[in-house]
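Whether sequence alone determines local backbone shape is best considered at the level of individual chains. For completeness, the protein is quoted in full, as a sequence line and a line of structure tokens:
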Amino acid sequence: MTIALFIVLLLAGTAAVIAPLARRPVAWPADPPDHRDDVARAVSSLRDLEFARAAGTIASSDYTRLRASLERDAFARRAPEPRRAAPVRTLVAAALIAAVTAGVAVFYLPPSAGDRAPGETVTGTVPQVDAVAALEARASANPGDVPTQLALGDAYVQAGRPQDAIPRYQAVLAKDPNNVAALDGLALILVASGSNDGAIVAADRVLAQRPKDPDALFVKGLALYAKQDWNGAVDVWTVYLDVGQYHFGAEMVRGFYADARAKAGR
């Protein structure tokens, strides 16, 4: 009963909107000509024409003829476009498509779809894919695939398995010693494990290539802060907060940055 009432009301509303247009054709509004665009185009063309004359790439007679034509066309008033009849057939077709779509949704969605909890899928099923296992299989099949090795290392970090990520980053660095993504990933693991000197070395290798790399600046600042090198942390994080204001660690760094400045007396 509810479905039938919904469809009846939908069709009635569609008819109420379309019927007046079908009985009395209404003129469809046309865009008025914008004479400012014509003038702007003419000015640009005249400037190019003057450059051509100054460079000697256009004959004097051609210059005179083209300039007169551009000046005439720039200020010529174009007739407004005629107002056309409203596209009733297009509106009817769009309304029918919307009605059919709504009907299909009402008939084929499960009744409990409207009562699902926030975040629950409409169909109630979620595809279960072990992304880490899939990456492991790809990495094993092709050890020289650098993007896959990097993706697997990142997946290990996100899964809370940083020790498994280290060999992946090292494998990438064995092939590409200056790979920024691998160095950044390794530096983050090192600083999280308290290996501040190693983290600084890895971050410096990135900064030698990209002086304003947010990940490397973030890690190096953390390592210097942990080593109580307040001035060093302030110097690094000053650059970081300038270039990495939307970086994932920016909010955390702002607190540490203020503390380091206070301890450094700056």
Observations:
- DSSP finds twelve helices and two strands in the chain.
- Residues 110-129 have pLDDT under 50 and may be disordered.
- Residues 28 and 70 are 32 Å apart (CA to CA).
